[in-house]
UniProtKB/TrEMBL annotation, chain B:
Superkingdom in the source lineage: Bacteria
Protein name: Cyclase family protein
Family matches, as Gene3D superfamilies: Putative cyclase (3.50.30.50)
Transmembrane segments: none
Automatic annotation (TrEMBL), chain C:
PANTHER family noted in UniProt: ACETYL-COA C-ACETYLTRANSFERASE, NON-SPECIFIC LIPID-TRANSFER PROTEIN-LIKE 2
GO MF, any single term: acetyl-CoA C-acyltransferase activity
Domain Thiolase C-terminal per the UniProt entry, residue ranges: 253-359
Source organism (scientific name): Parazoarcus communis SWub3 = DSM 12120
Name of the protein described by the UniProt record: Thiolase family protein
Amino acid sequence: MTEPLLKPRKKNPVERTRLATRPPGARSRTALGLTRAAAEGRFELQVCADCGSVQYPPREVCGYCLSEHLAWKPVDNRGELIALSTLRHSNDLYFRERLPWRVGTVKMTAGPVVVAHIHEDCAAPEGTGVPVRLTLKLDRSGQAVLHALPAKDTPNMNDAAQMRESTCDPKFRRVLVTDGKSAMGLATARAMLDAGAATIFLGDPSSWKTVAAFDKLAADPRVQVVELDVTDTDSVDRVAASIGGKVEILVNTASHLRDGGILGRKDVILARDAMEVNVLGLMRLAQAFGPGMCFRAADGSNHAVAWVNVLSIHALAALPSRGAWSASMAAALSASQTLRAELRGAGVRVVNVFPGPIEEDWEQLTPPPKLAPAAVAKAIVKGLQDGIEDLYVGDIAEEIRERLRDNHKAVERELGQ
Amino acid sequence: MSTPVLTQFLNELLNGRLKMVDLTQTLSPEFPTIVLPPEFGQAWPFRIEEISRYDERGPAWYWNNFSMSEHTGTHFDAPAHWISGKDLPDNTVDSMPVENFIAAACVIDVSKEAAENADFLLTIDYVKAWEEKHGRIPERSWVLLRTDWSKRATPKEYLNMAEDGAHSPGPDAEVVPWLIRERNVHGFGTESVGTDAGQAHHLNPPYPCHYFMHGNNRYGLQCLTNLDQLPPQGALIFAAPLKIRNGSGSPLRVLALTPSA
Amino acid sequence: MPVTVPYARYSSRSAHWWLGRALGELIRGAGLAKTDVDGVCVSSFTLGPDTAVGLMQHLGMSPRWLDHIPMGGASGVVALRRAARAVQAGDAEVIACIAGDTNQVDSFRNTVSQFSRFAQDAVYPYGAGGPNASFALLTDYYMRHYGATREDFGKLCVAQRDNALNNPHALMKKPLTLQQYMDARPITDPIHLFDCVMPCAGAEGYLVMTEDRARALQLPFVRIRSTIERHNAFPDDPIQFRGGWAMDKDALYAHAGTAPEDIDFLETYDDYPVINMMQFEDLGFCAKGEASAFVRQHRFTIDGDFPFNTSGGQLSVGQAGAAGGYLGLVQALRQLTGTAAATQVAKARLGMVSGFGMINYDRGLCSGAAILERGASA
């Protein structure tokens, strides 16, 4: 049975910090279909359109009928553990540091045989195999790997060391919420505390403004207020110099949202403000906090693990009535992709959150459905616990995502009506 | 060839009989900027980014790019800044007569009252009482309101925002037209972010200092500091805004000259 | 005479040096001119960026038949099949079959990382950094399903070590007891230290020609009685517990007109002890699942009742990359020409060589076997 995660001890300051290593990250292009599924928390394998066979490992033509019509589809994730081994030695730096490590052979109900990480709560097979569930998760190289879990959830299942290597659990971690004064920021901070975060660094971009809910949250002993204006390089650098070595999850809630397309105005001031906060703010934060997070990406059980950008589904498809803001969302998405590549070496995961409209002041006139900030925050926490990288929240976001996959031109026309 | 007056002036300055006081706040990103209702356009706070600092971006030099609004930090308001002054002649920083950059200053100290009441308003009676003690306000003088607001240590205290807006001292709606009509003042200056009081939107007319001063082609100075180093009368102010095309105002260095003792 | 270029744990030389030496000794030992060798078959993992083609220019050879066998431990048997058919068909008269690899400190890591697409996508991300995990899983399954014990595996390893002590080429020079085997540190449960081969540098080689040509050159020779080969056998087995030999062993014996009890010695491909057990079963020496009992009932030393891996096998000699696929075949050639020196099995007349290799994803894909007969001794 998995032991519950213990609160980490304080770090010995004169000991060398263990640096991040990564599991093997090379994959064929076709195998990246697994990564796409894992990034969104889905379980998909290739299925032959002609004979229906399920394929694994990923391949170019069906291993049964040689058809080239292979499509990625959700499949039954159940299987039987038929062989089990525990690594006590590895030539691979990453695994050497994490021994012993269980791997096994699982025969899937859907057909293929897979090698998978085997959760410590899965019993060893005896005469017959042991039922397990498979799940696809991103490992520290940002690539998909299969984990076999026991047939039913067990207590503290997600605390297993092997699981924590593929997830970004806030438990016992210190979280920076860059704008802790907005509704979204406050909800994020609360959700992180509920998920067991050790400390919330609550960013205050407008110390001159009194917000009662902020003051109330700031009184919590686990919360530490930091004055942080993401449009001010000095401010960002100052905060990073002070707490940069302690941030294990960074959630960028700093956001500038205003109505207004492009033609309706005679100036670019709102657009510049949106870019300044939503894009350049992200870059400043990355420059200031990124290196420290990378340095601590393998430092203890509460090592630095995730960078979360709260974007919008409209980063993927502009909403013309809010065109300037949409442009900044798209720019922020692009920047986050670069950031993802730059942080990947250390195994720090960049998580992009794509909610639909959130119930807050500047969305007042948007018709429902709108997401309560607490609901988005809860989804962020669950996404981190599950190790998701691209998180779509709410019906509108899911719907637009599906419509984009189907016909992006239709989305463009329909949003532009 | 310099005239004797200028020579004497320079000598007095250099030998310390004249003192130069810097009434300017340092421009830094932390310095608060006025915050308007969020639906309106906002003034950019001061932001600065290094271009290079004797490094690979520029090996032998150090320099910065900065951005801000015309009304950030210690700044000058030109008459064009307000609707009441929009059609007056020479009403922008680049068109106003350069002689207007130099004027005498009367410093009215209401720091005690302001400490007790953040919404303290300067009235005609208060000014008259001040004149009893310190003499009549000369023509073409700046009237500077010393509140010690510049000593407030944090942006929160400086902007002093409550649920109903900012609370900071300023002139009431009667004293401003009186100063213009009866004393022909040059302009009004304060230590807070606005020449008007924080709650001036409730006065009639709203923002009377902006309304009347700029409506009469007079000027404003904001975010001043070190007013406590000036005598009530006798200081000379140098306040030359940047020559911005059609500028409504600009950040500037405000310098005061005053006898030393 | 087959050739072994003595193995070394590490070598700063390239594979070309090892292969070139093997070819040189083969030619000199046979009293041939270099130009007499008109066919070449090469197996190597570390020859890159060259293949057999680049090697020909490197070695100044102009063969009219050239093959490159990338089948790992099955390379020896498969090269024999290819070369024999070529000589039979008249495509070449004298074929040199050589296998060799260098071993530098990062050779293993580099070889493994380029090994196969399925391994890259579906095995290495799971931690072993090599084939150990896949074989551990096979071993786990086999032990649980058939009741094999570590002592059974140990008995084979100890016997192979005893044999190796008679082989001056073996890199392992110290005796091994069953207790030492059992106490060895775990690598990947249930595999322990002495279940794993030691990668090294080395080369092996032999010549293939017609019997008439061998007599004319007055060379000791061995006859091929039968051979088999199979790739990706039993793909629907959820895990490998049998190899391709099970599909074709009947043909192997029928073609040679012999039976398992006629075999005087067996050289298997022994990358892990469990694979030896599978070969005992799949080559017909016992029934499937009975290898443990078989092991307990026999003695596998050179002088035992079932001489097995008489040079010591890879587990005691070392695995010189692709040359590991030739080790058993070269040893069989020595046994059957009476040139096995201190490892000679008395009266060896008929021998079997088995090859296995290329663990591509979760199982070894290549298998092969040959029954060889004494022709003319030295």
